[in-house]
Amino acid sequence: MTHKQVTIGKTDVQATPLGLGTNAVGGYNLFPNLKDEDGLNLVKAGLNNGIKLLDTAYVYGLGHSEELVGQAMHDFDRHSFALATKGAQDFSSGEQVINNDPKFLTAQVEASLKRLNTDYLDIYYIHFPDKQTPKAEAVGALQRLREQGKIRAIGLSNFSLDQVKEANADGYVDVVEDEFSLLHRDHEADLMPYLKDHQISFVPYFPLASGLLTGKYDQDVTFPADDIRSQISDFQEPRYSQALKAIDAIRPIADAHQATVAQTVLAWYMQDPLVSVVIPGAKRAAQVEANAQALDVTLSDAEYQTIDTAFSGFKTITSGKSLADPD
Ligand code: NAP
């Protein structure tokens, strides 16, 4: 079955509205007990099940996620899917420093190309803004790499609206990746409409709220200290109980489509006019296979609205400090 395609920004990069996040593919610094084999299998499962955007980053396993994604995609036609990665983390001093210096970003892109074993990236994101580099200069470095054919679309991640405006002074920015889910709706009021108006695609991360929005959790949940979910505010009260209550409103809609809660939530994002590609992560191939079926779920306007309303309280509940904050 051929699925709908979306276009990234003002480029000719195409993808399905459902991608695959790979921070748990080799991301040993983010999650405990990951196996390389599971990571390789889940990336292949994505590509075998019609997913056409892979999202990785240098910082996921400090290059290991990119290496595994590079290996997994080896048997697939490189032109048949889009590949996104990110960089800005400089560990040369022994600790993580965010660095958007044009020379550093250029070297990061070259290193990512090697690890991914490819000669172009469909999207390269500046993973976090630094404090010192003029934003348009950082983006200018990526524009030169685009002119050399090494990247096809320029992305920003974790930039505020003002920082996006500054970075896009020359109109080179094509896509922004930031946290957005039914539980984290802060960007709906300003950032997302701005991007739409300027033909910049929006790619939300943590769309399943790290698994919470799959509907698989009940009132009693704990995570080990080395699992990033142990620090996430969504799993702490009162937010956690509020989320469980809202998730219950999705269940009858999921049942009506013979779909899971996760598939229904992913379908909701794909019908949000302000969202371009939603990139759920996964730990195992079976999760990816299940999530890919969301490409075949279409909600009615009334169902879309019911879910929107069930989670409308989260438009005003502030998210607190984001896990993605580098410091
Ligand atoms: P997520 O998509 O909200 O949640 C993914 C997790 O949910 C999986 O690892 C899995 O965890 C669980 N899950 C997924 N599908 C499931 C299913 N069908 N049934 C049951 N459980 C399921 O969070 P994320 O993976 O952390 O974020 C998505 C992607 O966004 C990342 O992979 C990464 O590429 C990107 N990201 C980007 C940034 C940035 O700064 N740009 C920051 C964070 C993430 P369990 O099996 O352990 O429950």
UniProtKB/TrEMBL annotation:
Gene Ontology molecular function terms on file: oxidoreductase activity
Pfam families reported in the protein's UniProt record: Aldo_ket_red (PF00248)
Keyword Oxidoreductase in record: yes
GO cellular component terms, A-Z: cytosol
Keyword list, A-Z: Oxidoreductase
Domain of life: Bacteria
Segments forming domain NADP-dependent oxidoreductase: 17-309
InterPro entries, alphabetized: AKR, AKR_Detox_Biosynth, Aldo/ket_reductase_CS, NAD(P)_OxRdtase_dom_sf, NADP_OxRdtase_dom
Protein name according to UniProt: Aldo/keto reductase
